Hints:
- This is MUT7 Exonuclease.
- It is built from 29 helices and 10 strands.
- The chain has helices spanning 3-15, 19-29, 40-54, 62-76, 81-90, 98-110, 114-124, 132-141, 145-152, 156-169, 177-180, 196-210, 218-238, 244-255, 259-284, 294-302, 314-321, 342-352, 393-402, 408-418, 429-439, 457-460, 483-492, 512-534, 545-550, 604-612, 627-636, 645-650, 668-679, and strands at 336-339, 358-365, 377-383, 388-391, 423-426, 453-455, 596-599, 616-619, 639-642, 659-661.
- It starts with a helix and ends in a 14-residue tail after the last helix.
Amino acid sequence: VSRQLKEEIRRGFARLEDPxxxxxxxxxxxxxxxxxxxxxxxxxxxxxxLWIKEHPAVPQSGTKLxxxxxxxxxxxxxxxxxxxxxxxxxYQLHTADRNYLLEHVxxxxxxxxxxxxxxxxxxxxxxxxxxxxxxxxxxxxxxKANLVEDYVGEYPELQRKLLQTLDTWCDPSFNIRDITxxxxxxxxxxxxxxxxxxxxxxxxxxxxxxxxxxxxxxxxINQRHLRTxxxxxxxxxxxxxxxxENWADHIQSTVGENRWLxxxxxxxxxxxxxxxxxxxxxxxxxxxPDVLPRAVAQxxxxxxxxxxxxxxxxxxxxxxxxxxxxxxxxxxxxxxxxLQTWEETLQCxxxxxxxxxxxxxxxxxxxxxxxxxxxxxxxxxxxxxDEVFLLDLPRLLEQAEAEGEKxxxxxxxxxxxxxxxxxxxxxxxxxxxxxxxxxxxxxxxTEKQMQGVVDLLAVDKQVEGLSPEHGHEERGVRQPEKGLSxxxxxxxxxxxxxxxxxxxxxxxxxxxEQILYAASDAxxxxxxxxxxxxxxxxxxxxxxxxxxxxxKQSQKPRAKKQLKKQEAPSPSGxxxxxxxxxxxxxxxxxxxxxxxxxxDNMLQGLGRYLRCLGVDVRLLDNEDDHRKAAxxxxxxxxxxxxxxxxxxxLRSQVGEGRCFSVNCSEKAKEQALxxxxxxxxxxxLSDIFSRCQ
Length: 693
């Protein structure tokens, strides 16, 4: 609004004997104010609001104000939303007679203006004197759940009443038509948006938003648990991708002491296992005899007390006989450490927080099966080349809190993620980090501070031919490999065994199968990374894998529907990218005779080519460990030429700028040009073949 117009409006108010009555008369006779956006009526109204603040003598009281308030109320249900607050403030509607206001809102409601009645109630804070079910039902029928949330937003008692009402509607025996019948002619009624499934989702959203105890909504919770039961039966008996132990853990934690769910469990057991199988499981799950049908109760009596449940299905036989079909951990079992004390954890951190270290990071949590709340991390896995550490996060956090040092664990995790000298490998890191933040609020900004991170989820989009493959068809409805398992299959030859993926990771002690699964999930990241760095061309990863994986600074992850794809930041800075990034001060030119290097064993072609140009070259043999390059470099003052994963380890063992990562997918000549350009080596005609016999 121009300054000139504002000044004109203010001069107009100053001339009026009664500015409040004047504004009202103008709005009543104006036709433009009903449109959207900032109309002239809006400009004049907001200017009056500011003008009143500067001229406090203007506000009126008594009979005159009451008459004005009555006229304003009649106007509010038709005026644009942006005029509501200014008009309520100017005409002091909060001070008006409450019964009068309630009567007016009730009149709007009876006219069928449900949305307007609700908005006005929210603005005037009338909700405590209204019937929450009556006010919200027509709004839900019109698919205005957001307005319902706002209506109860500041009133915990109303939130509970609304949730109890919604839960009653979700009772399977309740007839939803009883609610909809009085609103037959409702405008904008969306019956397809008003059913138990939609209501159930709304209940869960409200429980989470308002932090209400789910026990308040037994019908919705039971139905969600029943869906979980059906899903678990499908995974176990149709898909056959869950071990018996894992399945039993989940069944017991889902059903618990709930008698209705116990009855549902027995019915499902009868369908899938017959009376004898159902009896065995009933005993294992300690189901009370009075929930069992007669046939199952009779079978239970016949079972011997010492008989343990041995329901060995084809799926389990399959597990044992086909282990060789899956990725196997290449390190011995004693190198997997399950850490529950701070003493053990500190020893782990000493090994992990080493410059040049490469760490595979993964996390596990108990599946929520759609219940309220974000999953909390139950296990943090850190894999190094020779060992894997499994950190019992809930236990360690509990201990740290008891000792009054609850910032201890977050501090270590932040050090790990923010250290550019340590390469962290993950798969879908954003998902892991949001669960980590839900577990420990001190870690909520970890993602912003990340450095030296490689998210192998980004590789999925680049590796050619990486699409779900069907295999092992004889195993029921075996799902095609996907996600990390598919990447492992593509790069390392065998998929991950995912039968423990949906485990109850909070239960202690962990089963042996869970420990092996958790260790494999983190360790396979190291092997994938090493293989991709050694031979990117085999996986169609373009000429410079290092750039595609780790060549970009950490960016804000782009939202994906399930996990966020993370561009991997560089763990190595300029040298990682060879010639693409010139140092700020190029080194002084030197001749090949002054330049001495040691070439890692995957760069023998480059070494021979440089030797032909007169460079002093030492080559590692195929069987030499990469670390030998660092010994030679230190003893003889040579620059290390290496590629891929070894670069991370070697660069921390020599001085800055004394280790260079070469693009291993290029030919020897291109690699040599890269090296010469980076170190400013000037080759003359007399240097060529000067070292050849």
